[in-house]
């Protein structure tokens, strides 16, 4: 039997320290920061959803997400930050499942997850 462990927590809570320990012990790691970037790459459903919610002003000329504009927008307004999370929330689990399945880490995963919006 194998397990998939998710490491979550707020800013400066020690997530990186824990993940670095697992990496050093040889455990495979899927980095949530990388996943969060990949779900908003040009052409993805995640980026289209953000554009629909926040408008074209969050896009750069090449169609990619303007992370600096988005950051300014969401860190100045808690409601918009929650809207960002709510908008992208449906895309993260399916992407994680794809990564874990395609890497061989999880062949028959069962997914149970509580959204941060449900707490």
Description:
By secondary structure, the chain is mainly α. The chain has six helices and no strands. It has helices at 15-24, 32-38, 45-54, 67-75, 78-88, 91-102. Mean pLDDT is 80; it is low at 114-119.
Based on secondary structure, the structural category is mainly alpha
Order of SSEs? HHHHHH
* Secondary structure tally, helices: 6
Distance between the termini: 30 Å
User: Major sheet: size, sense and barrel closure?
Assistant: none
* Poorly predicted segments: 114-119
Strand content: under 5%
Number of strands: 0
Helical content (DSSP H or I, runs of 4+): 40-55%
Mean of all residue-level pLDDT scores: 80
The value of Rg in angstroms is: 16 Å
What shape does the CA trace take?
Answer: globular
Question: How would the blueprint of this fold be written?
Answer:
Blueprint: H1 15-24, H2 32-38, H3 45-54, H4 67-75, H5 78-88, H6 91-102
Helix pairs in contact: 3-5
What brief labels describe this structure?
119 residues, mainly alpha, globular, disordered C terminus
Q: In a few lines, what is going on in this structure?
A:
This protein is mostly helical and 119 residues long. The chain is globular and about 45 Å long.
């Amino acid at each position: 039997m194998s397990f998939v462990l998710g490491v979550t927590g707020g800013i400066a809570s020690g997530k990186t320290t824990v993940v670095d320990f697992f990496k050093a012990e040889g455990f495979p790691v899927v980095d949530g920061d990388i996943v969060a970037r990949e779900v908003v790459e040009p052409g993805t459903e995640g980026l289209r959803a953000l554009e629909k919610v926040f408008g074209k002003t969050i896009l750069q000329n090449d169609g990619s997400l303007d992370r600096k504009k988005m950051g300014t927008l969401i860190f100045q307004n808690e409601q918009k930050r929650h809207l960002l999370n709510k908008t992208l929330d449906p895309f993260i689990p399916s992407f994680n499942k794809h990564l874990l399945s395609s890497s061989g880490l999880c062949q028959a995963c069962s997914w149970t997850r509580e959204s941060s919006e449900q707490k």
